[in-house]
Amino acid sequence: MIIHFKKEIGSEKANQYGEQLAAFIIEKDDKFVAVTSSNVKEIDSSLAADSLESFVFENDLQLSARSYMNHTREVRIGNITIGGKTNNTLVIAGPCSVESEEQIRQSSAFLKELNLTTLRGGCYKPRTSPYSFQGLGLEGLKLLKKMKDEYGLNIITEVRDATHVHEVIEYSDVIQIGAKAMYDQGILRACAKTQKPVLIKRGFGTTLQEFAQCAEFVLSGGNDNVILCERGIRTFETKTRFTLDLCGVAFLKQYTNLPLILDPSHAMGHAYGVPDLTRACVAMGIDGLLIEVHPNPKVAKSDATQQLDRQEFKELLSTLSPIAASVGRKIV
């Protein structure tokens, strides 16, 4: 249940109600918002007297539900806004991992040349094998910050676990919670305490309900700037890395109020299929794309097979605007 209390009741009384209901209390501009379990169906008369309105839900998809907020939340990333009343589809691109200053500088200059605004690059890599490249860590974050300062790019990078979440919050413009980390409540609760945008990737064995409920951890802590990212789920198929769940995207657009970004690179796992899959994503009328691009994919230290080279990416980018326009959107 979500309850809106009149702002004039004051924070002390609002927190008393929070304790009584075992609820999260979020202070908004004109009201206090109490969020409690969906199992609570009624409030007593003393609470109702101070309440503006209440919302009852069948399950704990609440703050993220379109039945609560009947429009997509607006999230600002630097000078670009997605969601809300915009029709923007943001293209985020860059290598899987920050490998060296030369490599990430080449990537940054390339994005700047294309008038793109947002650079991706992993510094803490949650690899399946302990013998694989694990990322440059804090050194990589500092390189990303250097590229931000020199090229004016927004930075998105991934949190691997709660031990370095505050470093990522400090250095990035968008905090990415990866598929392997989306259940880490230490990460989720830390991200709830910032107002920076948080992009949550769907785990490859995660239901849509579980996916949206991870967003609720961040939203219920007071951070409205949450973005969902579909990156493919594990099915019986072995010829592609994962299966991009466009049916799930349709569900999330219909029933949640969160901006949606799609990651065709991780879903396909092979560069040859990324362009066609990207075009299908744009046709869904989504809020953004996350695409892996490397100066020389053959020598990439992680996910080499799925990263586009610069010419492949330029050719792909040139095809996206007409598709976006056909569904009333604009590539930015």
Describe the structure.
- The two termini are 37 Å apart.
- The mean pLDDT is 95.
- This protein has 11 helices and 15 strands.
- Strands 7-8-9-10-11-12-13-14 form an 8-stranded parallel beta barrel, surrounded by 7 helices.
- Helix 3 runs parallel beside helix 4 (138-151) and helix 10 runs parallel beside helix 11.
- The chain is α/β, with parallel strands linked by helices.
- It folds into 2 domains: 2-55; 75-331, TIM Barrel.
In short:
This protein is of the alpha/beta class and 332 residues long.
- How many beta-strand segments? 15
Low-confidence stretches: none
How many DSSP helices? 11
Query: What is the averaged pLDDT score?
Result: 95
Q: Give the H and E element order.
A: EHEEHEEEEHEHEHEHEHEHEHHEHE
User: Distance between termini?
Assistant: 37 Å
Which class of secondary structure composition applies to the elements? alpha/beta
The level-1 CATH class of the largest domain: Alpha Beta
- Any idea what the CATH superfamily of the largest domain is called? Aldolase class I
Cα-atom radius of gyration: 20 Å
CATH topology of the largest domain: TIM Barrel
In the sheet with the most strands, the strands line up as 7-8-9-10-11-12-13-14
What topology emerges from the helices and strands here?
Layout (H helix, E strand, L loop, with lengths): L1 E5 L3 H12 L2 E4 L3 E5 L9 H5 L1 E5 L19 E3 L2 E3 L5 E7 L6 H13 L4 E3 L17 H14 L2 E6 L5 H7 L2 E4 L7 H8 L5 E4 L6 H12 L6 E5 L15 H10 L4 E3 L1 H5 L5 H10 L4 E5 L17 H17 L3 E2 L1
Parallel strand pairs: 7-8, 7-14, 7-15, 8-9, 9-10, 10-11, 11-12, 12-13, 13-14
Antiparallel strand pairs: 1-3, 1-4, 2-3, 5-6
Helix pairs in contact: 3-4, 6-7, 10-11
